[in-house]
Structures are given as C-alpha cells and as structure tokens.
C-alpha cells in the first residue's frame, strides 16, 4: 500500500488581540474539504506564539492512499 502526502499552510486569525486561542472555523472548513477529497490529517503544527497582529500560520500534513 502506497500513500501520497501534502502539506497545507493556512493563516488563521486569533480570537482576540494578543490571544493564544485560534479561530476554529476556517481550519475546520479547510480540513473538511480535504477529507471529502480523500485526504486524512496526519499532523497539525500550531505555533506557540501567534504574534501581536492576530494571525497564526498553521501547517497541516495530510495523506491519502495512492490510486
């Protein structure tokens, strides 16, 4: 069985200025769309510090079985 992999990077807003929690809706929508295409989430990298401008770049690693 062989797999193919891909990475996605998504900038997500935080829930408030200097907040440590991310808005979940954009990420859920992105992952649900990838799931409909047969991709499975393997790992999600969320940076510890989002910065003062309220954006964080999340990296998702996905895999699916090769056809």
UniProtKB/TrEMBL annotation:
InterPro entries: YjzH-like (IPR025234). This is DUF4177 domain-containing protein. It comes from Bowmanella dokdonensis.
């Amino acid at each position: 069985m062989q797999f193919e992999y891909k990475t996605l990077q998504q900038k997500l807003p935080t829930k408030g200025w200097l907040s440590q929690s991310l808005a979940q809706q954009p990420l859920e929508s992105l992952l649900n769309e990838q799931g409909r295409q047969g991709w499975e989430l393997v790992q999600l990298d969320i940076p510890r510090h989002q910065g003062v401008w309220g954006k964080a770049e999340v990296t998702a690693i996905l895999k699916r079985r090769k056809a």
